[in-house]
């Protein structure tokens, strides 16, 4: 079974996946494989362009008997059995990205994407088994435990209940 662990940059995917690895889950980090699928560079958005279809073909080839968690910002676009989206209030997300040294435009773009549910919308175009976890006030261990419960206890999909639109209205330019 392949599970995507995704979310806007800064929500804590990488840190959570480290805990999940310690719990015994196999982890495939998109960051470790995406370079061979880069087809260009978007100067305006300051980001690499990835051939998602080619990367998905590679992911499909992986035969997994247990649970494989595919962690990364693009993992919800891959052929997986379920998608877990980590969500974070845009104000907290801004604080985290500032701490990482991100530029103002990139921080704003990601905070707005979070408020607009962009990842959820894209995931819904391809998947039905989706879970959202609001990580804003949770520790990394709490989030990892919630993911373990989703996988092991086969909790029904749960999404569409997190709403940061108020932040978007308050911060509209």
Describe this structure as you would to a colleague.
The structure is a single chain. A 5-stranded parallel beta sheet has the order 2-5-1-6-7, with helices on both faces. A two-stranded antiparallel sheet has the order 3-4. The protein contains 7 helices and 7 strands, in the order E-H-E-E-E-H-E-E-H-H-H-E-H-H. With 173 residues, it is of the alpha/beta class. It has helices spanning 13-22, 52-61, 90-99, 104-115, 118-124, 140-152, 165-170, and strands spanning 2-7, 26-29, 38-42, 47-50, 68-71, 82-87, 130-134.
How are the SSEs ordered, and which strands pair?
Layout: E1 2-7, H1 13-22, E2 26-29, E3 38-42, E4 47-50, H2 52-61, E5 68-71, E6 82-87, H3 90-99, H4 104-115, H5 118-124, E7 130-134, H6 140-152, H7 165-170
Parallel strand pairs: 1-5, 1-6, 2-5, 6-7
Antiparallel strand pairs: 3-4
Helix pairs in contact: 1-6, 3-4
């Amino acid at each position: 079974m392949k599970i995507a662990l995704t979310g806007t940059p800064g929500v804590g995917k990488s840190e959570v996946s480290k805990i999940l690895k310690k719990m015994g889950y196999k982890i495939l980090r998109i960051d470790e494989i995406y370079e061979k699928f880069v087809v260009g560079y978007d100067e305006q958005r300051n980001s690499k362009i990835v051939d998602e279809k080619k990367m998905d073909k590679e992911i499909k080839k992986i035969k997994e008997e247990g649970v494989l968690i595919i962690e990364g910002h693009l993992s919800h676009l891959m052929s997986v059995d379920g998608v877990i989206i980590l969500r974070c209030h845009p104000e907290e997300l801004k604080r985290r990205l500032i701490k990482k040294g991100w530029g103002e435009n990139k921080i704003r773009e990601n905070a707005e994407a979070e408020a607009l549910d962009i990842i959820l919308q894209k995931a819904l175009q391809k998947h039905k088994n989706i879970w959202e976890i609001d990580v804003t006030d949770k520790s990394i261990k709490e989030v990892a435990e919630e993911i373990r419960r989703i996988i092991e206890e086969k909790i029904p999909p749960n999404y569409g209940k997190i709403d940061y639109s108020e932040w978007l209205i308050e911060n509209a330019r």
